[in-house]
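User: Structure with glutamine, C-alpha cells only please.
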Amino acid sequence: MFRHKGSDWFKMLNKLKTINKEYNFFNVISEDIEKQEKSSNGKLKGLFVSIKDCICVKDMESRAGSRILEGYKPVFNATVIQRLIDEGAIIIGKTSQDEFGFGSFSVNTYNIPKNPFDKERTCGGSSGGSAGVTRKLSELKIKHVSIAESTGGSIACPAAFCGVYGFTPTYGVVSRYGLIDYANSLDKIGVMADNLSDLKKVFDVIKEYDPMDSTSLNKELNNDNSIKKVAVIKESLNVNPEIKELILKTVKDKFGSYDLISLPLVEKYAIPVYYILAMAESSTNLAKYCGMRYGSSLELKGNFDEYFTEVRTKFFEVESKRRIILGTFARMAGYRDAFYIKAAKVRNLIIQEYKKAFEKYDLLISPTMPVIAPKFSEIKKLTPLENYMMDILTVGPNLAGLPHISCNAGFVKKMPVGIMYIANHLNDYKLMNEKLK
Ligand code: GLN
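Assistant:
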C-alpha cells in the first residue's frame, strides 16, 4: 500500500493546482481524488498516477494535447487505465504533451510544460508533463508514477531532461487499446517513476495480453533479469563531451568493463526511416479529425472539403500540418515504393542489426539525448530538421520495438543527463535490475 504523508485530500488537490499554475504539467486535474481514494484497493492501493493526455480516461477530457479534440470525454477507459483502477491506483490527471505526440520538447501544444530544474527550459517531449510532474512530486515526497507513451522516444527524452526513470516496453507488451494513436506500428505505452521498484509494480499491472488490441503480444516475458555483458554504442558518443564523459563513467562504475560496438545502419538510417514511417502512419490517423464526429467544430458551411479544411486549418498545430503533408506525400501512388516501402525494408535491416548485437550482449548503452534540456528561446531557433535530429539516439530502439529505459546519470550545467539502456525483445525485466539504479 502506498501512503501519502498528511493525507489531507483537499490540501493535496490545492497543491497540485498550485504546482500546475507554475509549471503547466497538467491539462486536466482530477477533482475526485478523495472519492477514488476511498474505494482504492489492490496492488497499487493509494498510488497517485498521472496519465499522458493521449490515453483515454472515462469521463475525463482526453485530447492528446490538441485543440481539435477539445471537449472530448471518452465513454470508456483504455485497457491500461482499467487495469490501474482495478488495482487501486488513483488517477490524478492528464499530463501535457506535444499535440498527438509530434515533437521532442512539448512545445507543439496549447499548454507548454516547464522543466522543474529551470523554468526557462523544456521538459522534453512529447510526454513532457508526465516527466515534469514525476520529478516535482518526487521532490515533495508524494508517491506517484506517470503513464506515458513513446513512438520515437517520447518517454526516454523527457525522462532524461527531468532526471527520472522512463521505461518503454517491448512493442505489443502493453495494450494500446484506448490510446489516441500517433503511429500504430511504433506506439508503446510505458511508465515513468522516481524509482525502479514502483515502476516495476506498475508495469506488472499494465502488461498482459489484450484481445482488444490486434497488435497485443501473447508471449511471456523473460524472467531472467541478469546482466552479464554490456556494450556502448560507439556512434552515440558523438555528443557534447561532458555528456559523453558522464555516460562512460557511469557505465564503468556500474559494470566495470564494457565493449564499444558500432551500429552503422542505425546511425545512418534510423532518423529518415523513422520520420517517413511515423509521418505516413500519423497522416492516416489524423484523417478522422475533421470537425464532424467529435472535438472542435465550426459552423457547417460550404462543401465538405471546404468545411474540413477550415476546421483542420484552425485547430491543428503547424507541426501536425507539416506531418500530414509529408506523410501523405510518402504514401502517394507513384512515391510509395520509393519512400514508404523502402523505409519499411530498411527498418527490417535495422532490427537485424540490433538482433545481431543481442547475440552477444544483454544491454546496449548510449546517452538518451545528445544535449541537456534546451531553453525555449533556443528551441525557437531550430529548423524542423534540427528538431528531428534531436531524436537520433532514441528512434533506433523505437523502430525496432526494443524495450529501453532512460535513467539519470548525473548533471551537466545543473541539468540532468539521461543514460539509455536497451534490451532485446521481451527482456524488459533486465531494465528493472537494481544495478541500473
Ligand atoms: N520526437 C519524435 C517525434 O516527433 C518522437 C515523439 C514520440 O515518441 N511520440 O515523432
